[in-house]
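Lab channel / #folding
Pinned by the channel admin:
"Please post every new chain as: sequence first, then the structure tokens as a reply. Keep commentary short and put observations after the output so the thread stays searchable."

First post following the new format, from NK:
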Amino acid sequence: MPELQSDKYPVSIQLVSLQDGQQSVLNVSGEVISKGSQLYVRYEELQQGPQGESVSVRTTVKISGSELKLIRHGAVQSEQTFEAGRQLPGFYRSPYTQFNLSTQTRKLDVVRKGRDFTVSWDYDLQVYGELSGTFAISLHIQEEPKS
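Reply from TO:
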């Protein structure tokens, strides 16, 4: 059985999120780990905690075939899975609340050019079976030049 090639390199990441007409942009540094046909994008972001303090959340985006999985750890723990045309379960947990959720993905596109790529997806988020929001996300990943 051939060994899977593993490759790891630093990247700059721009995450653009459009929720119900409101846009937010996050620019962070991270890394890509390529294992066979699967890509893992990892980055860390600081968010505002309940008392106004900064809390760290580590995010891993797993891209494999026609599926994308978004996994968050730290002050917040969550998991969401996206596949075009499917409704898939997930969850969200923080010290103050927890709930199950589901995503109904309308579109998921991955465009790769060498070590740079763009992932975009549109979905409806449901919490307790009710529509909680409509999202359009694009993730632009660019290899950091070697110094």
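NK: The chain has a mean pLDDT of 91.
TO: also worth noting, Residues 118 and 140 are 5 Å apart (CA to CA).
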